[in-house]
Amino acid sequence: PNTNLPFTDEENSIRTEFETNIETYCDEMAIKFIQGEESLDNFDEYVATVESYGLSELLEVYQNAYDRFLSQSQ
User: Which of 66, 60, 70 is nearest to 15 (CA)?
Assistant: First the structure.
């Protein structure tokens, strides 16, 4: 996603590494869940897979950039 947050080069590298895989997988699974091709009984497995793609690291990158953004706007 395009944002105005102040990401560092290292954070942009992390974003590049994780975002595409997470977004692609989530998009594919959302369609499968909606169309009934994937049972909602497997939702915990879906969440675990998203987490295995580096979700916590990606959230940390966004949180750090957001915190910098807030400190710069004061």
Answer: 60
**What is the model's pTM?**
0.79
Residue 53 phi, psi (nearest 5)? -85, 5
Confidence of residue 73 (pLDDT cuts 50, 70, 90): confident
- In terms of Cβ atoms closer than 10 Å to its own Cβ (0-12, 13-18, 19+), residue 42 is middle
| DSSP per residue, 12-59 | HHHHHHHHHHHHHHHHHHHHHHHHTSS-GGGHHHHHHHHHHTTHHHHH
In the block, residue with structure tokens 């105005």: 4
Spatial CA neighbour of 15 closest among 44, 49, 58, 45: 58
